[in-house]
Amino acid sequence: MLDSITPVILTMNEEPNLRRLLAALDWARDIVVVDSGSSDATLAILAEYPAVRVFHRPFDTHGNQWRYAVTDTGVTSDWVLRMDADYIVTPELRDELAVLTPLATITSYRIDFGYAIFGRRLSASLYPSNIVLFRGDAIEVFDKGHTEGWRTTYGTMGRLAGKLVHDDWKPMKGWIGSQARYMERELPHLKASPGGLKHRLRLSPPLMPIVMFLYTLFGRGMIFNGRAGLFYALQRLLAETALALFVLEDRMHAERAAEQTRSDENSAR
What is the pTM of this model? Predict the structure, then answer.
């Protein structure tokens, strides 16, 4: 089935990741990349691969970027494999895709993710499964907090046994800035939508950063993954701390606005 799949990738300064990603996609006849303004060697690297077609679109939201990548780039294959630039197709997943014969009713596949820190595979992660392989006309993408959500519009969903591995080699200084932007966009989503325990913890600083760090390190066993496991646990701590700070800032601004309103009302009497 490999001939029927077009990998679709979003990029923005992905020089440290691209060669590993593309080496694992050497089976693809057509690879679509939508770049949102890379200033490193990303575009030069992409130009080395004849199978790659590059499109340019300024980033606004993940939902809009993916919608453009899937529907407006001339993909002609029956199936799309959506990839972040820090994903790696494992040999097991490639072999599974090669012999895959979907039932006529199946229009999408969900997949589990592995996680690695600078090439060191972790025994577990918090990365959720998601729809990554689908027929282009059977999918809907929408903005969901700081990222995007996916759902099928017709047919049924299958599940792949092989995994994609998330392994981002970009410097931490860029990661920290990205997390701040992501969590700023996550806050309105949290405030607008009801949720369970995790939702309530995230809106109750400082509970979630502490819980996330301890759960990742001990509940998910990252303590047994050495420095890579500690690195991942601290990443989760930092991400949730950024969100907690935005939650506190939002509430303090609201309190200050309420105090000002009361002061103005008293002055008008």
Answer: 0.89
